[in-house]
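Students often ask why we bother predicting the structure of a whole assembly rather than each chain alone. The short answer is interfaces. A chain on its own may look different once its partners are present, and contacts between molecules only exist in the joint model. In this exercise we take two input lines together and write out one structure for the complete complex. Read the inputs first and try to guess which parts will touch.
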Amino acid sequence: MKDHYQLVIIGAGPAGLAAATVAADHGVEVALLDEQPAPGGQIFRAIEAAPVERAEKLGPEYRRGEKLVSAFRNSSVGYFPDTRVWSLSARREIGVINQQQARMITADQVLIANGAFERPVPFPGWTLPGVMNAGAGQILFKGSGIVPSDGIVLAGSGPLLLLLAWQYLRAGVKVKAVLDTISRVNYIKALPKLPSALLVHHHITQGLRYQQTLKLAGVELHNGIRDLQAHGNESLESISYRHKGSKQTLKTDSLMIHFGVIPNIHLSQAAGCDHFWHKRQQCWRPELDKWGGSSIDGILIAGDGGGIGGARTAEHAGRIAAFRILHNLGILNQRESKIEAAQDRKWMKADLRIRPFLEKLFRIPDSMLRVPHDNAIVCRCEEVTAGKIRSAIAAGHSDSNQVKFFTRCGMGPCQGQQCSQAVAHIVADKTNTPLQQSAQFRIRPPLKPLTLGELASIYPEERE
Amino acid sequence: MFKRLDESPRQTVTVIINGRSVAVPQGESVAAAVLAENIGYSRTTPVKQLPRAPFCMMGVCFDCLMVIDGVPNQQACMVQVRDGMHIERQHGSGV
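Now the answer. The structure tokens for the assembled complex follow.
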């Protein structure tokens, strides 16, 4: 790894791969840093290593990644897998660590393409072994060919629940139930957005096909569920929920949950980029111009990390950002970058047509986000419950950072990534203020835990 | 509980999970190997000593912390298995 690059890209998912390939093809010296051992991001995880039989079970959208990764492999991009970024400043200084060796590098242009993660929604029992994110289940499937035993339940909201249930079915796993929080109100609110969504009908027909297949296989499909809880001593034994006013219980040792995905804004927050609360996507997003440029010169963001659009949109956004970067580096003039980006803009616009529909349909009920059960652990690291956060607020600690100082909520190894949004929701609810005005946790490096030895390795010449 | 799909055999390495030798596919994450062994929980928490298992599998939640080759607080989902690797449950803070 060099000390300086023209372009450093963080994240090797669809956005990062597409951007890196375009930039390198135009002669830019690119470093692509990624936490994972192989390219593809979470969506195309293990795309090069997965045996054909597994890839086929995962379906055609997964296999789209093959083309993207092979184009990247044929490019001159400097690729650094197993490399974590623990710091990013507005001056484009990047703290990285690889094999216990930490270093600081700089770049003329930085593209953040580190994607999204599953929205943490605290409920009683969600910390029990046996409860896992649905995306995590998919990673196990893609990366290792590991699937749950029969009788698994999937719960939450979003297209991933149906997709994963369908994939498990293809792998011969008996899925007991798919429980979604979407209610009749969601359908009514989503309806006006349907015509535009139908223009990209492949998403809708896919969803309907999944549903049909699951029904035929005898999977229980219930919508409008509320008050989800997981029960067990050492691990999950059963779940309960409310459906049509009555309490239901299901015995299961495996629950996979999913409440949509939210942008991973840790790096853009650390750099000091401006963010705003996006009401429709129920998450914070960085302020971006139409090229993916953030509020800080030379820092661009593409893919789900800039707002949720999915894998295809991420790929287009990555290329669009790359054309802007080529202009910023003086390789293309403004007109040329505009022309180069035109095709991707067109495709991206078409792909995004389904989003307003999905956002309305799979909107997470405010009650679930704002008022988690008193017993629900909100901060999984420091084991702080919603009840404890509420009493801190009642005692006068009326913003997220005060709650953090008072309760240690957000001070564990995940650095508040899993609880920051939930805390902001609880604060907004308890203090009766709009979430937009809610303060977020202040983010400071190191963003990933570093040992003192790793930190000292930045300056090897000063060692004895 | 988890199981492995019946796929064409791959190259394996031998790791020791809580003292038991297990053959696992090369390139797999420690968290995946541990889940496939169905050991129940992979750590206990530092505050209330409650059991936890891998939750996000992508490096953001830090619930999969384990002791790997004697070093505590390793994210099992971010470390690949190596031949002869010792993987153990972490109790509390691990130190």
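Check your guess against this: The domain at 4-117+262-356 of chain A is CATH 3.50.50.60 (FAD/NAD(P)-binding domain).
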